[in-house]
Design brief:
The protein contains two helices and eight strands; from the N terminus they run βαββββαβββ. It has 125 residues and is of the alpha/beta class. The protein has a single domain, classed as Roll (2,3-Dihydroxybiphenyl 1,2-Dioxygenase, domain 1). Strands 1-4-3-2 form a four-stranded mixed sheet, with helices on one face. The chain is globular and about 40 Å long. This is VOC family protein. InterPro entries: Glyas_Bleomycin-R_OHBP_Dase, Glyas_Fos-R_dOase_dom, VOC_core.
Length: 125
């Protein structure tokens, strides 16, 4: 039924202006605006809708993953841009916020609305 549909994902934020600055200026994504919402234009030609929700509650799971070739460099650059990676006890993260136990190396951080994002190491990224 939807096999040929160009589906897209979306998520809510409580402040569209803060989201636009974070995703555009801090993370360096191309961001466009229409009808009070944002569209994040990510590599690969797929867009992500970011919409306002006044009673927004942050997701308790990762809503967006950014594959990177070198997670150490990505986490360091996020830090220079004022983004702090989360420190978790389970799954355990190191002093930089990188989880190194099983699976890809991954670090989580949040957007201004509290939504969880990640960078994960993928040598083919």
């Amino acid at each position: 039924m939807f096999g040929e549909t160009k589906a897209f994902s979306g998520f809510a934020v409580d402040d569209v202006e803060a989201a636009a600055r974070f995703y555009g200026d801090t993370l360096g994504l191309k961001v466009s605006r229409a009808n009070g919402m944002l569209t994040l234009h990510i590599a690969g030609g797929r867009d992500i809708l970011v919409y306002p929700k006044p009673d927004h509650v942050p997701a308790t799971y990762t809503i967006l993953n950014f594959p990177v070739v070198d997670i150490e460099a990505a986490v360091d650059e996020l830090g220079r841009r004022g983004v702090r990676c989360e420190q978790y006890g389970e799954p355990a993260t190191d002093a930089k916020g990188i989880h190194r136990g099983g699976g890809p190396l991954i670090a989580w951080f949040t957007d201004p609305a509290g939504n969880v994002l990640s960078v994960l190491e993928d040598p083919g990224a």
